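Researcher: Structure for this, please.
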Amino acid sequence: MKPPRLTFLSLALTFAFLPTISPAAAKPQASSQAVVAGIKLIRTVEGIQEYQLDNGLKVLLVPDASKPVTTVNITYRVGSKHENYGETGMAHLLEHLMFKGSKAHPRLWEEMSQRGVQFNGTTWLDRTNYYETFAAKPETLEWAISMEADRMVNSRISGDDLKTEFSVVRNEMEKNENSPSRVLIQRVLSAAYQWHNYGKDTIGARTDVENVSIPRLQDFWRKYYQPDNAVLVVAGSFDTAQTLKLIEKKFGVIPRPKRVIEATYTLDSVQDGERSVVVRRVGDSQFVAATYHTVPAAHPDYAAFEALQVILGDTPNGRLYKSLVESKLGTGVFSWSANLEEPGFIMFGAELRSEQNIVFATELKNDQTIAMAKKVLINTVEDLATNPISDEELSRAKAKIDSDMAKVFNSPEQLGVALSDHIGNGDWRLLLLLRDRIKALTKADVQRVAQTWLKASNRTIGEFIPEADPQRAPKPAKVDLAAQLQQFKPGVAVAAGESFVATPENIDKRTHSGQFANGMKYAFLPKTTRGNTVSASLSFNMGNESNLKNKAMIAGLTAEMLDRGTKKLTSKQFSEQLDQLQAKLQINGDVNHLSIYVETIKDKLPKVLDLVNDALRQPAFDEAEFALLINQELAQLESSRKEPQPIASDLLSVHLNTWPVGDPRAYISIEQRILQLKAIKLAELKSFWQEYYGANHAEVAVVGDFDEAVIKAQLAEQYGNWQAKQDYARLSKPFQGNKPLDIKQQTPDKANAFFVGRLALPVGDQHADYPALVLANYLLGGSMNSRILERIRQKDGISYGGGSRLQASATDESGSFVTYAIYAPENRAKLETGMREEIAKARQEGFKAEEVKLGKESFLQQVQLARTQDGSLAGALNSNLYLGRTMQFSAEFEAKIAALTPEQVKAVMVKYLDPAQLSVVYVGDFAKK
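Model: Predicted structure, token format:
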């Protein structure tokens, strides 16, 4: 229920920032001496080692032994920018086909699943990357490097694979077409760029994707997927010498290609006037967006655009939030500065409710509301000449960027993948150069850049208006990369943490548990970490079946108000404090539970905990913030009434609900939530907080780099005597029988459809059949190599994503099996057939012995990998405190998984997963021809 930040920037793009780090560091060291035959050390910069093979392949090693995790990432300098006429979407289509297998690895998804590897590939404008993250094992690292080397030149780019993947890519297109904001952004960019491929969606034109020829696709692959056009990154825990030998052995045999990759040269002319685009589609929320041409990422002025996107677009401290959201013209704002190799863009936008209740404009029609919002957006962005940037705004922007990137730079896994965009921009060191340029920014720099580029003639948003004397932006131009990099001075590498063994036994041994005077339980696991990071998980349990009647919505909204200001700090000041403390804070609440997650660094933790305590013990409950929250919640719910996925979930939950109205366990429909939101008063939230909040039924777990004695004393003082006025008792949710149904709901003008099915199970996580059910679900639909996904994506080619999940209570003998998928509406019958056939086949034939063996290994590796993440581990320890468990419970569960036989897995399939008992809902535009 957070205010919509509406950032449409990909994860890789967000990594374009970097934290401020001490500038003291050794100069880059270049060497022509081969450290391994066939590999030369080029330079070492801030702990990152750059090598090059004789065939041109560049290698970056980012060692960190603090976690038993390794990430292998390979980036190819090819993206949608490199596609010619008729080739749009080719780079993205190749990304899909690269997972179909290669000469030495014919069943790639299966191999990855067997090893518990977390993997993905992404295609962007300037580059394509593939990565694998896994528990640090020499044999898995060897497999990953061998696999990437093999699929670089031996991938099976075949016509048969292309046939099934066509439908999958089309389904992905349809999923994107369901998003009003994504569609609008694509249309705005296509209008802003007349000639350059940055104006084209990476997924490509539907006709190009559907008509691409295999020979042409193979030519594209052979041209760009070569060692001299790639950078291999290995990050995390690994042996450097052995890894270099392995890279040379696997990649060194690939010859340097003789072909030449031509330099790109197409650039748009100077924009000579405002451009506009209008998209009309079904939906409730409205969006307005404005984009302006900017400079390449290597340009000295690019850092100013990163600052401007925060100064103007941040929530809740940016200028657009103040002018649009606080005035109730909009419900959320977003900003995006594109980090690209060639002249890019910066975009600003806002979301509006179609039923916006504007105090000063209650008689306005929707198009008048949009016009007003558009005018305010333009005035806010383009009036920096008359309303200059302040010292406070620039300082706040730098602090936010520094906080965001500290989290990334302290994680080798994220850093390894983050380098991809900067490799695509020409050189990975641009990431560090950008960091330094942001640190050195002055108010005059940002002001000059804003006034040069953020002007009407350079804007794409509304209708075109002729001008006698148009004010033009400078002509876009490339920069001399070598000259820019000469100015770069490396900083210092981040300190490494300890090599922590994340086994249940070691975790229990290292964890110190107890409780405070009022009964609040604690678990502390101190250890040194990379960047001195620390994670904390707090939970507060409240109320009971009797005293929580008709309070579900009130409880949730009360939790949402906690970080919207305290008696000491306004909402904006609270947000600024988090950024200054390099802290991540998440607060979530439901009818009888409040959970808080904190992530920061060692020396900031005490102050962060003070801030959290203020939010819990002294919330402001500000009237203006409450009005904003209600407005944003209504916008989200009203928008969901036209979207297939929330509609399907709502229909299913309404049908399966057996609790009476007002019961704290009862499901509240979308329509009822809208009605209740409009009726709730702020006084009800204050009363709920006063009566139900306390720490006598609470838990806290802290994992990472922290002073245990100091934090223990601080938490005891803050919460050790805090008592709730209302009694607490766990809400029992016993098993309730199945009520099979089959619903098909029409949603007009939606290219993508959604399916969901549910089966209630009389099984909790302590039930004797639970381990077998977990593995059965994993093999059937819970993994990337599952039967369901293999059928609907790989074989039938009708879904971009689908599968199943198993849920089981830790306190009641109650659970559920859920299956789901997205698909094109015309493929509904084929999807239903595939789903039911795969479940029936598994019940009738079971799973093969080898399938069960590999599934167990893969599942257990994923469980073990999860324990290496401090945030996840803190959550697990917190849950154990509530349930009265230790990690021994996890160890015993894993032993039961390892001991399972195919016969046991089949038996629970037959016993519990009857397709005839499934309640299913299909939502989509099934009437469309």
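Researcher: Any notable elements?
Model: The radius of gyration is 28 Å. Residues 282 and 749 are 6 Å apart (CA to CA).
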